[in-house]
Specification:
There is one protein chain. By secondary structure, the chain is of the alpha/beta class. Among the domains are: 17-180, 3-Layer(aba) Sandwich (Rossmann fold); 415-480. It contains 22 helices and 7 strands. A 7-stranded mixed sheet has the order 2-1-4-3-5-6-7. A hairpin with a 5-residue loop joins strand 6 and strand 7 (167-171). It is elongated.
Length: 480
């Protein structure tokens, strides 16, 4: 049972918490930056997509601008309940005021959300101009949380977002900070004598060690191509130990672990690859695919949004997001929009045109759907799926001859396509064409995989039809 009650969760200790939040800020800035980045208690970094550009009303934009109180993009931190299971189940229930920060990111501000643990407070609030605090988390914060936040922020402005949608200023900008401790030496009292963060001289730090040389991935690639995933995993483990900053190693190890059945470990590695290199789309594609298989659809959409932000001219993330909307969410209008964006970027790609036709058909917009299927077939006359999908539309509008012609053309191209064989078999069966139905059903059973869930049903149907056909033949012979 997922717990949505605000509380301070146990957090995963990390050697350099500042680096975690620096990566989160970088991810929030990647591409168009229109996403809110959440640092979970496990120190995973998750992106939550904002509404599409131009979708917010003028009144909403004005309200958000008043909350930000800034004309230029600023850094915003938020303290909220960031339990990963709660976010995946219902992120708005986990963070009731999520709309505020999604709106701020929509306007271009850099927004990072965390749980408010004292060990992360200064790293999360470093150089931030605005700190938002979910009212439900306030009782669970450390006594000195406000002082820690003020110390780290650039121009401290702290607001409490209440569950009744009201907003309370805890530390208005250009105001004196709260009273110091009785001894006069608390963190806020000390802050009075400190210059603003921008004016302070940078602290002297020990130069970081030079980066480790990149690991040669050719042997790993050979192992993976040969299907020797255990050997590849051993090489990847050694490579990560030598050079933990090489994102490709985490990406490939995540892929290998998923192939070996370790989905949780695989996702964790893909997360690390995405954090180390948020500007390379490949690990985001693979993580999205795994998340779809795990039913984590919001996470997959977040990854596709991120990829689209990285390369707005790339049609692939729009196509993949459209398929997710069509097949998982059954959201035809959104799928049409996504496929149209893909077609706009690659008008001669028959798959994208066909996919839009499928989405149009799902909305019963049959004329434009047939136009798209016609166009896809014109681009690629060997695209069996386009004939099949057009045949389904003809079947729905009761043009059986055209439907059957398309199905047969699809089988001409792909004779062992079980989906088409099953459709054609049932078409003959429903029409009472028993001999033809039996022929096609037998072809289907020969082509079907052993674990095909419909194979047993068709075997039973074939037995029944065969007995029926034999009985009918015997009656014919007796009647002569």
């Amino acid at each position: 049972m997922v717990n949505f009650t605000p509380q301070m969760p146990g957090v995963t200790a990390t050697e350099d918490i500042s680096e975690v939040f620096e990566r989160a800020r970088e991810m929030a800035n990647a591409g168009s930056g229109r996403q809110v980045v959440v640092v979970t208690p496990e120190r995973r970094i998750v992106g939550l997509p904002c509404p599409p550009p131009g979708s917010a009303s003028e009144q909403m934009v004005k309200s958000l601008q008043q909350l930000a109180a800034a004309q230029q993009p600023i850094k915003v931190s938020m303290i909220a309940y960031t339990d990963l299971d709660a976010l995946r189940t219902d992120r708005k229930r986990a963070i009731p005021s999520l709309g505020y920060v999604l709106g701020l990111a929509y306007l271009g501000h850099n927004v990072v959300v965390f749980e408010g643990h004292p060990g992360a407070m200064m790293a999360a609030c470093s150089d931030a101009d605005l700190l938002l605090v979910d009212e439900g988390m306030v009782p669970h914060l450390a006594p000195n949380w406000l002082g820690l936040a003020v110390q780290a922020m650039n121009r401290p402005r702290i607001m409490q977002l209440n569950r009744d949608r009201s907003i309370k200023e805890l530390l208005p900008s250009k105001s004196a900070p709260p009273p110091a401790s009785k001894t006069g030496t608390g963190p806020i009292q000390r802050l009075k004598s400190r210059p603003p963060a921008r004016d302070r001289a940078p602290a002297k730090a020990t130069p970081p060690p030079p980066p480790a040389p990149p690991i040669d991935v050719a042997p790993i690639q050979r192992d993976m191509e040969n299907g020797d995933f255990d050997a590849a995993l051993a090489r990847l483990n050694a490579g990560i130990q030598t050079n933990p900053e090489q994102a490709q190693l985490w990406h490939w190890r995540g892929t290998v672990r998923c192939l070996l059945g370790d989905m949780a470990g695989g996702v964790a590695d893909l997360d690390e690859a995405c954090v180390i290199d948020p500007n390379t789309p490949d690990p985001f594609y693979d993580r999205a695919e795994v998340n779809v298989r795990l039913g984590r659809l919001e996470d997959a959409i977040s990854d596709y949004n991120h990829i689209a932000n990285l390369d707005p001219n790339n049609p692939r993330p729009f196509s993949l997001r459209g398929l997710l909307m069509l097949e998982q969410y059954e959201d035809g209008p959104q799928a049409i929009d996504d496929f149209s964006e893909a077609v706009k970027r690659a008008p001669d790609n028959p798959d994208y045109v066909m996919q839009r036709g499928m989405a149009l058909a799902s909305m019963h917009t049959y004329g434009p759907a047939i136009d798209d299927f016609n166009r896809a077939i014109e681009i690629d006359p060997q695209l069996a799926r386009a004939y099949y999908e057009r045949g389904l539309v003809y079947q729905r509008v009761e043009e059986s001859k055209k439907a059957l012609a398309d199905f047969m053309q699809a089988l001409e191209i792909e004779p062992d396509n079980t989906q088409v064989l099953l459709t054609v078999g049932k078409l003959h069966d429903e029409a009472g064409e028993i001999s033809d139905a039996l022929d096609v059903y037998v072809r289907y059973l020969e082509a079907a995989a052993e674990d095909d869930p419909q194979a047993q049903e068709i075997r039973e149907r074939v037995t029944y039809l065969d007995q029926f056909e034999n009985s009918r033949r015997r009656k014919r012979r007796r009647s002569r």
